[in-house]
Amino acid sequence: MSHSPTIVRRDLHFDMAADIPRFWVEGDAHKTRFFDAMSLMFPDGERFFIDSVRAFRAQIADDPVLDAEVSGFIGQEAMHSREHLEYNDRLEKQGIGAKELVQVLKTFQENRAKKLPPLGQLAVTICLEHFTAMLADQILRHPGTMHRSDPRMAAIWQWHALEETEHKGVAFDVFRRVGGSPLKQYLRRTRAMLFVTGLFTFRVWQFMWRISKAEGTQKDWRGWLRLLGFLFVSPGPITRIGSQWLSWFVPGYHPWKHDNRKLVEATRRHYDELAKAKPLPQAKAWAAAAG
Ligand SMILES: [Fe+2]
Ligand SMILES: [Fe+2]
Predict the structure, then answer these.
(1) Cα of 77 to ligand 1 centre, how many Å?
(2) Is residue 2 one of the residues assigned to a domain?
């Protein structure tokens, strides 16, 4: 049984205007690079998600609802990947070694992740989708997180957060169909979550450290402390997602057991309307949706 809301592919284009500040989150280098580090991981990561779900397409063809959701999932992730490539081009132009960092991930995917069996790749995908869904929930639930950020960049993250929430159950539902007995599924997805949590955490900090080294902010300990305060205290997204992360280990877990459909509704109306107009007037988009 699926619980997903309608999954809409919104072909939005976010123009990387030249006057977007280098440190677009509150003018703060370390906070900005936390988001930028994740952006560097998205294009290749999202292509990996698409491939790992697509590998099981034939096995779910008898379920037209899930099949349609998979189409929506692939469409949304493809748009995210495209927009984050532009985002990352902007980072490359800032001389922070963006391309080299993307290559680190590409090499890891080629040598390790893509050598996992298809079901192992799908398990990694559902774990990373759990991470994107948890962080997306924080962005939608606490829009103030980005109120002091550049509205054009905030709009990209809000749009991405909306769609990550809309499709958060899709890969998981495919996994439930093809993953074998409930016990096998449970063991596979919990083991994968421990591995993915360690790896994801390591990569984010590795990327931030290397960026800060490239731009000479790695010894700015006040900046690192401000980032830790931002992540763990106020607004504290990492602290707030702790219970959702743990809920993954409850037998019978499903992403929509954390039901945040109401949270999505207000935001999606704005982006549905904006999807009809190009280019996206980002500042207005964010201001309107954030209220
Ligand atoms: Fe995405
Ligand atoms: Fe996703």
Answers:
(1) 5
(2) no
